Amino acid sequence: MRGRARDARMSGLLNSGITLVVFLAILVGLVVVHEFGHFIVARLTGVRVHEFGIGFPPRAARLGSDGETEYTLNWLPIGGFVRLEGEDGGSDDPRSFGRKSLPVRVLILVAGVAMNVLLAFVIFTVIAAALEPNADARVESVVPGTPAASIGLQAGDLITAVDGHAFPYFDGEAPTSYTLAHAGDRVTLTVQAADGATRQVSVTLQDQAAVNAGKGALGITARIVPGAIVQRSLVAAIGVGADRTVQACGLIVGALGQLVTSIASNPGAAPPVSGPIGIAEAVGTVRTEAPPVVLLWLIGLLSANLAVVNVLPFPPLDGGRIVVSVLQTASRNRISASLERATYFIGFMLLFGFLIWVSYFDIVRSGVGS
Question: Partners of 225 in the beta sheet?
Fold first, then answer.
């Protein structure tokens, strides 16, 4: 028994370690993509870039140099950075960030956000074009005396379509949600048996009263599983990718609105968002319990998340830096470099405090220590 317990602990630790590595790889990758946007536009607009770092200092290795920019690998695997000349003011170098016009500075700052939106779009488009499965319903049990029993559905059967409609995995629908929405109607199910044989069968679903009573429309318990890959043209996939990018950004905006409402109404309550710990747990759950394509979809969602969060007008986020740049221009650069740096420092500390606060609730929700 002790050996089994020890093996279980080791397996759990190994699984947690793999999840941590995957989460950090995703985090670093998304931030490096973001910083690459700043880097490429800064170089194109003539701003001096001293360093492009993967991870945060202390420095682990110098990867190379192109004569102006050093490329470095750093020990803290929590993101990346681009070090611009005069990015916090206080530089007389004509190639400094602070000496550029307001439109150029805004363009450099927005470029990071744009890269994350672009990455989300590319991921969602690739999934829609070649990787997205249909959401099929695997029957786990059939309730006697229900429509499912009357047509001979059995545990193990797979419902792949209803009324000729298949359900793309990431559209938020499935055969079971369709039947619930059509309670009392007569529908045609496409059913695949355990031996691979496929048949179509018509059945009248239970009425809305039965659904409201928790009896379901068909009378089964089912598990949603990935089915055949959805067939889409490239043009259609691009349209789906664009729609899902907009939906992902809207989802993040909605979550931020709920966060503000929650803090204003009950600051002591658990926030309706997750911090790094909660996101890492979600990555672990998806990695171990869902098809690999779901992890790719989650990366797209996190990229959209990073874009929306960074555009917020709060220093030291990109949106906050845009606000400071506008104020500098409006005041004819009367805001001192020391005040600008202090603003970014205070904003960073507040942001760090928020992450600690939301991480506390992540730990409470996960049940660690209970």
Answer: 136
For residue 35, indicate whether it is catalytic: yes
What is the arithmetic mean of pLDDT over 18-26? 95
Are the beta carbons of 48 and 93 closer than 8 angstroms? yes
Bridge partners, residue 220, by sequence = 142
**DSSP-based helix, strand, coil % in the chain, nearest 5:** 55, 20, 25
How many C-beta atoms lie closer than 10 Å to residue 38's C-beta?
25
| pLDDT surpasses 70 at 343 | yes
114-83-96-318 Cα dihedral, nearest 10 degrees: 40
The pair of three-digit structure tokens given for residue 135, joined into one six-digit string: 């959401």
| Residue 276 clears pLDDT 90, i.e. is over it | yes
φ and ψ at 332, to 5 degrees? 55, 45
Q: Using alpha carbons, list the distances in angstroms from residue 124 to 117, 120, 215.
A: 11, 6, 36
Distances (CA, A) of 78 to 312, 325, 342: 20, 27, 23
pLDDT band at 217; cut points 50, 70, 90: very high
Catalytic residue among 35, 51, 87, 132: 35
Measured distance CA(81)–CA(22) in Å, rounded:
20
Angle at the Cα of 227 from the Cα atoms of 175 and 299, rounded to 5 degrees = 100
Q: Which domains does the chain have, with CATH numbers?
A: 2-130+281-366 (no CATH), 134-229 (2.30.42.10)
Tokens of residue 89, six digits? 């003011």
Closest CA to 225 of 285, 283, 159, 152: 159
CB 305 within 8 A of CB 252: yes
Task: Point out which residues pair with 205 in neighbouring strands.
Answer: none
Checking if the pLDDT of 7 tops 70, the result is no
Structure tokens at 311: 């555009």
Q: At what angle do helices 102-126 and 318-330 cross, to 10 degrees?
A: 160
296 strand-pairing partners: none
> Which amino acid appears at position 69 of this protein?
T
pLDDT, tens digit, 9 for 90 and up, residues 112-159: 999 999 999 999 999 999 999 999 999 999 999 999 999 999 999 999
Query: Where do the DSSP E strands lie in 165-300?
Result: 186-192, 198-204, 220-229
